[in-house]
Amino acid sequence: MPIINRIADFAEDMTTWRRHLHTIPELSFDCPKTAAFIKERLEEFGVDEIHEGIAQTGIVAIINGKGDGPTVGLRADFDALPIEEETGVEYASTHPGKMHACGHDGHTAMLLGAAKYMVETRNFSGRVALIFQPAEEEGGGAQVMCQEGMMDRFDIAEVYGIHNFPGTEEGSFFTRSGPIMAAVDSFTITINGRGGHGAMPHETADPVVAACGMVTAIQTIISRNVKSGAEKVISVTQIHTGSASNVIPDTAMINGTVRTFDKETRDTIMRRMAEIVQGQAASYGVEAELDYEEGYPATVNAEAQTAFAAGVARGLVGDAKVDDDFAKVAGAEDFSYMLEERPGSYLFLGAGPGAGLHHPKFNFNDEIAPLGASFFAQLVEQLQPSVK
To answer: How far is the C-alpha of 141 from the C-alpha of 334, rounded, in Å?
Structure first.
């Protein structure tokens, strides 16, 4: 695999770091062991500054290059998931009910590898801000780091991130300009009716029938209210009501998710869902409340930065292994908050065959870590060449 020779020299170290992190998965913002390990490695490498406690356990480390110039941000997330591991590997999670099922241990190892190389060589101008972020899976750690002023505090001009992608060709890169991942929202509808005997429905205000009507009507938002061609998903995933075959209940609950790639579509869906819930409630003689929760916004790559990042990837792996017009992904990513504050790009790195993300048998492919580290290092060196 075409990687920087010096990074290849400590590929084994990267595997060791990654597998240690795999044994100590931590959730959301509460990642003290993970943060302590990252800090220890950064101190060993000799980075110029280490700033802790950003978004509780997040870290930003600074490496100074040769000569003046802007600061480029490189981000790795490091939180895990509340999943019981089923990999059977010798370095499996030692924290019951928690595991690195999304490869954030690998992302951290990649950025640590890039950091070690860049401290040794400093073959760039300006500065690099290494962003180690908690709470990607839940809590929006990227948003919190931005809210705490990270971008201005460290004068970050551009920001880049990578995510491993199992099930795609190992060592390939995938990205696109514009929206690459969706905004993710959730909704809960609580319906309050008047229960009674199943044989006497005329004496009730049936929340079950109202729930069915609402679900059917909500599905028309996509086909009748959003402009053709706009990519969007509304999925009702839960309906809870009732307890017996001959009893009409008092209440019902509907829950689901919404995925969109632009603000206009997102706003239309929110508006129409609220109108439908109230209108359907009135027509069935019940009361209903919509709790619509906006989650991570769409991840939107800047055009110039994405073209540049794709060019760096081509220099590493060749044209055939870089797809810079990759199909949008309906999953969500809180790196979106960083891209709202600064231009940059988010890329997927092919990880080869294996269990998918968030699966209890998932295990990061250590073979791709040196390539990810090389990409980060080459990106910085080409974006901000050192002053001779």
So the answer is: 7
In contact, 187 and 258? CB cutoff 8 Å: yes
Model pLDDT for residues 185-209, shown as the tens digit of each residue: 999 999 999 999 999 999 999 999 9
Q: Give the Cβ contact number of residue 193 at 10 Å.
A: 25
Backbone angles phi, psi at 220, to 5 degrees: -80, -15
Helices 104-121 and 11-23: crossing angle in degrees, nearest 10, is 140
Cβ neighbours of residue 261 under 8 Å, at least 6 residues apart? 179, 182, 183, 230, 231, 232, 298, 328
pLDDT 10s digits, 141-172: 999 999 999 999 999 999 999 999 999 999 99
Look up tokens 């999953």; give the residue: 331
Predicted structure pTM score: 0.94
CA dist 40 and 47 (Å) reads 11
> 377: part of which helix (H) or strand (E)?
helix 369-383
